Amino acid sequence: MTTSADTPATTRDPSTITFREAYARLEQIAQHLRQQESPDIDALIPMVGEALQMRSICLERIQAAQAALEQMMPEAQLR
């Protein structure tokens, strides 16, 4: 049985994926992995690859937001 977590959803340009979309996809992948009774090794590699891409997108968005906030409030320590 194939689920949405079995096939990568990131066929579009990563710069067009929002933080919310990337985070939601990470959640979907994590939930799918937690619910497996036995691991599907054939699906694991592409899922981990997609999860790493979504993680990278999330980190980039967080860092960009942090930099923007630091620029707006230079006296604030956000790290």
β-strand amount: under 5%
Q: How many extended strands?
A: 0
Return the average pLDDT rounded to an integer: 84
Helix content: 55-70%
> What does the largest sheet look like?
none
Query: How many helical stretches?
Result: 2
Large-scale geometry: elongated
**Helix and strand string, N-terminal first?**
HH
User: Based on helices, strands and strand pairing, what is the structural class?
Assistant: mainly alpha
* Quaternary class: single chain
Radius of gyration: 16 Å
First-to-last CA distance: 44 Å
Low-pLDDT stretches: 1-7
Describe this structure in words.
The chain is an all-alpha fold. The protein is built from two helices and no strands. 62% of the residues lie in helices and 0% in strands. Mean pLDDT is 84; it is low at 1-7.
Could you provide a short overview of the structure?
The protein is mostly helical and 79 residues long. It is built from two helices and no strands.
Which SSEs are present, and which pair or pack?
Layout lengths: L18 H17 L5 H32 L7
